[in-house]
Design a protein that fits this description.
heterodimer; A: about 290 residues; 2 domains; 6-stranded mixed beta sheet; 4-stranded antiparallel beta sheet; 11 helices; 13 strands; about 30% strand; B: mainly alpha; about 75% helix; disordered N terminus
């Protein structure tokens, strides 16, 4: 059984359609990057998965209906939203006490040992910690929970590069194993491309593209074309074309690599480039982000 | 509370070892602890008022022996005013503080967590909305009454002890003080007042919790303006005042139901005093429909708050 399975998932807020018939399946042991412009429905989708909002359609998370069984679900699902959600009045020791008191799968010693590696003092209140430290604290709490699914909604928003790198390193080295599943949304796609096993583009409440990273690497190719081969390359129907420093770069979907290799320099595109290729040309009110 | 044995359908094909027995958890207890961590005014506000009251009484102590001597020749009720009124005012201030704290606590309890988005954190933990809301409802209905009563009882003890010490040191007998503020009866009266007041106000606290869970901002205005608006509309449209009557009855009705009106012979009281306990009518109070209807309404409001907390999104 998949960790998360949705069929025809819909969510409307009054007149806006936030999710417009989403079908998805996230298998156990995957790290899925959910990527989309602002207002695409990422957070709505995650909120449905976490049982925070009601929805139409079918949704099962580790075999449970999140809206009906949120309390039960939260024993196996962890969530880190942006850094603002830890209560500012709370002391670090209180946070440990509280989570240990309510969560059956919380390993306090593990959280303490993770905190010992940081500058965070047990007596500090959350409001006294820097943004990076708050994230470290939240990560310490979450990593000490033996959960099946970890949902990260822009977990590193507003953090500097070092904290961001540390965050994902800790996540991979100390937390992730093949029996856990992680779903992450972020605008800093380039930074997590290496850790993802799957990626999904979402736009206007619909899944636009969904593939594993292995498929991504075989399917998509980026060609920096030699000037004289321009017309030849264009004939192969690239899905996107852009100019950088006078050179033309094509993005191909499922083209023959040997054929492309003869026309210029070939490499695997970044998710960000593919994102721009897939979504960038559509008119939108909010700025697209990658 | 919810240490249900792990019977989930999802605990299959896990490669890592699960802890054989999940750790015992006490979500309700820890939810209560969290309320006390977050809203420290629950005990700080009554303590501050008690401190102020004690300070005021300390100043009065300077001329207390003189007052006791002068009061000996006065009729009972004038002695009472001299000796017991400060106690009554002190106790009333502490109890009223408790109600004020309860009102503002309820208005914030379900609203603040949505405004600062910490509800996303609370909801990411296996604590049900029912547990969360019940723990919040416990604060005005159980925690605050107990805290306020304890602080009031200790305060009157301190006042009596200080008064007695000063009177004895000056060689004036302390008996008048104790006869006008009889410790046992006064404590009983305080306890009774706290219990009937809390039970009577339960639907008010419930209403405030609903507003707190429902409104986006300005919870106090919503909580006050809705009932006022209803009674004004009723008065203008139908020229009746059932709503206004209901509100007034709810605000002060427990005084009518829980206490007998003093006997008509005012002169007898003024001369000899009256046993305050003879004025308590617990039988009448606990059989009054107003109490039980109020408790049912309170339960309905709390249920509505649970539903709203589940349904509403962070602001």
């Amino acid at each position: 059984m998949a960790t998360v399975e949705a069929r025809g998932l819909r969510k409307t807020f009054r007149t806006t359609v936030a999710l417009d018939g989403v079908d998805l399946r996230i298998e156990e042991g995957r790290i899925l990057g959910l990527i989309g412009p602002n207002g695409a429905g990422k957070s709505t989708l995650l909120n449905c998965v976490l049982g925070l909002i009601p929805y139409q359609g079918e949704l099962s998370v580790i075999g449970l209906d999140p809206w009906r069984a949120r309390e039960r679900l939260m024993r196996d699902v962890c969530f880190i939203g942006d850094v603002a959600v830890l209560p500012r009045w709370m002391r670090v020791s209180q946070a440990l006490d509280y989570v240990a008191g309510v969560h059956p799968r919380f390993d306090r010693a593990k959280a303490e040992s993770f905190l010992a590696r940081t500058q965070i003092k047990r007596t500090s209140r959350v409001r006294e910690l820097s943004k990076g430290m708050v994230t470290q604290l939240h990560l310490a709490l979450v990593m000490a929970i033996d959960a099946k699914l970890l949902v990260l909604d822009e977990p590193t928003l507003g953090l500097d590069l070092l904290f961001r790198k540390q965050f994902y390193d800790s996540l991979l080295n100390d937390y992730f194993d093949r029996s856990r599943t992680i779903v992450v949304t972020t605008h800093q796609v380039e930074e997590i491309q290496q850790i993802l096993t799957d990626m999904m583009f979402i736009d206007r409440g619909k899944i636009v593209l969904s593939c594993s990273m292995e498929d991504f690497e075989t399917r998509y190719a980026e060609l920096t074309v030699r000037p004289e081969a321009l017309a030849q390359a264009r004939a192969l129907k690239p899905i996107h074309e852009r100019q950088i420093l006078g050179r033309t770069i094509f993005l191909f979907d499922g083209a023959d690599r040997a054929q492309l290799g003869a026309l210029g320099e070939l490499r695997t595109p970044s998710i960000a480039d593919l994102f721009v290729a897939v979504m960038g040309d559509q008119p939108r009110t909010q700025g697209a982000a990658a | 509370m919810s240490t249900v044995p792990d019977t989930d359908a999802g605990a299959f094909n896990r490669s890592t070892a699960q802890p054989a027995v999940p750790a015992r958890t006490r979500p309700f207890y820890w939810s209560l602890r969290r309320e006390l961590w977050e809203y420290r005014s629950i005990y700080i506000a009554p303590l501050v008022v008690a401190g102020i009251v004690l300070f005021g009484y300390a100043v009065r102590l300077a001329h207390l022996p003189h007052m006791v001597q002068a009061a000996e020749s006065l009729p009972w009720w004038k002695q009472f005013l001299e000796l017991a009124l400060p106690f009554a005012i002190a106790m009333a201030s502490i109890l009223v503080t408790g109600v004020v704290v309860a009102v503002f606590y309820c208005l914030g309890a379900l609203n603040n967590e949505r405004r600062d988005r910490t509800i996303l954190f609370w909801k990411s933990l296996p604590v049900s909305d029912l547990t969360a809301v019940l723990s919040k409802a416990c604060v005005p209905l159980i925690i605050l009454p107990v805290v306020v009563l304890a602080i009031a009882l200790v305060t009157q003890l301190l006042m009596l002890a200080a008064g007695t010490a000063v009177l004895l040191a000056r060689g004036t007998g302390a008996a008048p003080l104790w006869s006008h503020w009889p410790l046992g009866q006064a404590s009983l009266l305080l306890g009774y007042l706290v219990v009937v007041g809390t039970l009577w106000y339960a639907p008010i606290y419930g209403w405030l919790l609903v507003v707190s869970a429902w409104a986006r901002r300005m919870t106090f205005l919503w909580a006050v303006l809705v009932p006022i608006g209803l009674s004004v509309v009723e008065k203008i449209a139908l020229d009746t005042s059932y709503v206004g009557g209901l509100i007034r009855y709810r605000l002060r009705g427990f005084l009518l139901e829980a206490f007998a009106s003093p006997p008509h012979n005012v002169h007898a009281i003024q001369a000899n005093g009256i046993d305050p306990l003879s004025l308590l009518t617990p039988g009448k109070f606990f059989s009054s429909p107003g109490l039980w209807v109020g408790l049912v309404v309170a339960a309905a409001f709390i249920a509505a708050s649970v539903w709203l907390r589940r349904d509403r999104e962070p602001i």
